[in-house]
Design a protein that fits this description.
four-stranded mixed beta sheet, 18 strands, alpha+beta, 18 helices, single chain
């Protein structure tokens, strides 16, 4: 301890690393035998009340001996040993995974396969012993310890905390990986260990977070990620459309909600949902069902338009029943509802996401993140694909952004249509202005339209139009109508 407190900071890391590998800490076994040993710091826990209650009946752990506290001072000992790896919460322990053949094939998907690299799974030490003898007080304790385990982690590391990893070779020594629920998370999701306000035990999927008993901690750093990982039953507010959620929040804030009013809102919502389901466009297949999404850049031909000169002499020659291509619109397109367009657009974005993921998996290892995926290609270049609308619609000038080595290298706006033939597709002012701004900065190649044709079908494909402003200026992109803000 004297060395730890006096050593220069430049040498402390090496000092801590060497000490962590030495069996020098006096520890007492967690049973009635009073067995003592000298152990490494990674093999023992601080013996506070929460951990002693948690490991009660689990006899394979050791606690720091109280004699060390008495001889050297509890504060100094705890600060010293915590830095060396003694834990004040249950450890996440690596174990061999036992994935079934079906689980492995699902994780690999359509990726090439040349052999397994490894399977890593994780257990939360003592969990099975603890949860098999659950009581309300033990449930509150387990909740506290889980929160304690993740509160100091980054949001990315918290998500990794609950996951195991499968890694395989897919091409000449190159590796690919996929994440799956760790063994201890499966236990937490499958066992009825949570207590509701009626003092009944429930699985996370059987209870909403708001229905938990009052004795649970409800606010803590990273608690939202824990709630998401456990897959609680969705709150009724989360099941409602955004407009109704806002209405209920306003009503609640003004303290005028009654059961009758709430029933009326829910009834109206159910009726409208049924109506929308009857009208809504239905895809023939889901984007995830398509094993090999197709995506290619295309060379646009120059647009050929009519010669509109000398029209005065030709006015009388035009028949009333004649119409131009611009005014003709397929009946199906004209009848599309806003619901249809939204559903088609969402299908197209998911298809593009899968196509991008497959393309980057061929270049290097891909890691799923909350907003998309990231990784490093075979040339050592870091990439990150962010899907702005993955959880809720918030993309304005584009739907995806591709970062390379931390720099934004490409902006993707997805346009989806159900046919392969050409049709007029809406481009918003925000999208067009962002593309123009990049063009003016000589960065026009960064902006792309990803056109998904045959959306909803197995033969869907993506055509990439890069630098639309340039294409338009070169007469290779036809625009109609053009609305100016005057």
């Amino acid at each position: 301890m004297q060395g730890y407190e006096s050593i220069p900071s430049s040498k402390k890391e090496e000092f801590v690393e060497e000490l962590s590998d030495a069996s020098f800490v006096y520890a007492v076994k967690n049973d009635n035998t009073e067995e003592t040993r000298l152990l490494k710091t990674s093999q023992i826990y601080f013996g506070d009340n929460d951990l002693k209650n948690y490991f009660n009946g689990y006899h394979s752990v050791f606690f720091v001996s109280d004699e060390l506290y008495e001889r050297f001072g509890e504060g100094r000992v705890k600060e010293f040993l915590k830095e060396l790896g003694v834990e004040d919460k249950p450890r996440r322990i690596e174990i061999d995974a036992n994935l079934s053949r079906e689980e492995i094939e699902k994780l690999r998907g359509s990726s090439l396969y040349f052999g397994d690299r490894y399977q890593k799974d994780y257990e939360y030490e003592g969990l099975h012993n603890f949860i098999n003898n659950i009581t309300p007080e033990k449930s509150y304790l387990l909740w506290r310890l889980l929160l304690k385990s993740i509160e100091s982690l980054s949001s990315w590391d918290v998500q990794e905390f609950f996951k195991g990893e499968y890694k395989w070779y897919y091409h000449f020594g190159n590796e690919n990986s996929a994440k799956f629920d760790a063994k201890f998370l499966k236990t937490l999701k499958q066992q009825p260990w949570l207590v509701n306000k009626d003092n009944n035990f429930k699985k996370p999927s059987e209870i909403t977070f708001s229905e938990l008993a009052y004795d649970y901690i409800k606010e803590r750093l990273n608690i939202g990620i824990l709630i998401k990982a456990l897959e609680f039953k969705p709150e009724i507010m989360d099941q409602l459309p955004e407009n109704y959620r806002k209405i209920l929040e306003i009503v609640k804030a003004r303290n005028i909600t009654t059961p009758e009013e709430l029933e009326k809102i829910l009834s109206e919502w159910e009726e409208k949902t049924l109506e929308k389901e009857k009208e809504q466009w239905m895809s023939e297949c889901e984007p995830d069902d398509i094993i090999a999404p197709r995506m290619q850049e295309v060379e646009q031909p120059r647009v050929v338009t009519d010669d509109l000169s000398d029209q005065v002499e030709k006015v009388e020659e035009v028949r009333p029943e004649e119409s131009t291509e611009d005014t003709e619109k397929p009946k199906k397109e004209a009848e599309k509802t806003l619901i249809d367009k939204k559903a088609i657009g969402e299908w197209g974005e998911k298809y593009v996401y899968n196509a991008l993921k497959q393309r980057y998996q061929e270049r290097g290892e891909v890691i799923e993140i909350d907003s998309g995926f990231k990784g490093v290609d075979t040339n050592g270049e870091e990439f990150e694909i962010i899907w702005l609308n993955k959880h809720q619609d918030k993309g304005k000038g584009y739907d995806f952004v591709i970062r390379k080595n931390g720099e934004e290298a490409e902006y993707i706006e997805v346009k989806a249509k159900t046919q392969e033939s050409k049709e007029l597709i809406e481009v918003t002012g925000t999208q067009w202005e962002w593309a123009r701004k990049l063009f003016d900065q000589n960065k026009g190649e960064k902006y792309c339209f990803y056109i998904v044709s045959n959306a909803g079908k197995n033969n869907a494909k993506v055509c990439i139009l890069r630098n639309p402003i340039k294409l338009w200026k070169e007469g290779k992109l036809y625009a109609h109508p053009v609305n100016f803000k005057l």
